[in-house]
Amino acid sequence: MDTYALLLASMLSSGTILAIAALGLLINEKAGVVNLGAEGLMLVAAIAGFAVTVHTGSSWLGFLGGMATGALLAAAFGYLVIWLNTNQYATGLALSLFGVGLSAFVGINYVQAKLPERIQYAIPVLGDLPLVGPALFRHHPLVYFAIALTFGLIWFLYRTRAGLVLRSVGESPESAHALGYPVRRIRFAAVIAGGALCGLAGAYLSEVYVGLWVENMVAGRGWIALALTTFATWRPLRVLFGAYLFGGVTQISFHLQT
Fold this sequence. Notes:
The protein has about 260 residues and is mainly α. It has one domain. The protein is about 75% helix and about 0% strand. It has helices at about 5-30, 40-55, 60-85, 90-105, 130-135, 140-160, 160-170, 175-180, 185-210, 220-230, 235-255. Helix 1 (about 5-30) crosses helix 10 (about 220-230) and helix 3 packs antiparallel against helix 9 (about 185-210). The longest helix is centred in the N-terminal third of the chain and has 28 residues, at about 5-30. The protein is globular and about 60 Å long.
């Protein structure tokens, strides 16, 4: 694989982490909730997914473990913010700090842990094409899931009644409540869904992108994902392109350093 193809492949893999996390946070913000705890949430999900994979030998169970962890932490955040009316920014920051500490504590036992041998994925025929094959068609399935998720979210938000209700809850909760929609329940569900996606991004980071556990390995990606939603003006397709842009810039900087 030549340098440019390698950079393109690395950009897609790196951008996938940001894309999945940012799309999860976009769901939260469409419902009117900002979760500043994404960084800590992703860290705890990263060690949870890594630990499940180490003990079961299945990366897919690890992904489920990461998603479940993300959803559980998001549910705790949502309960405090939505049902107990705590300040969402202070609660999110507390979650982020909690996640940093908890992941470091649990991760001590997994610093030297080894994951099962990684499976090499390739799309038949397309993966064998010169240059573009290795760059575009030999990625982990979650790379393509991020793309499918983007278009699925576009369809959901702008082509379905449920998506319209979700947006109305975020943009005008009083109107949604007047129409009989359970605003708190909808927001709570959105927060859990967003947390599950952030958890999946964290698990992908530890299991696939890095392949080992390193303390504080999220390294600011949760904050970048938060910034991406604003950068993309809360549009899923722009989030995807923005994630690839940030991923590409990161990989180019690494390449220049070496």
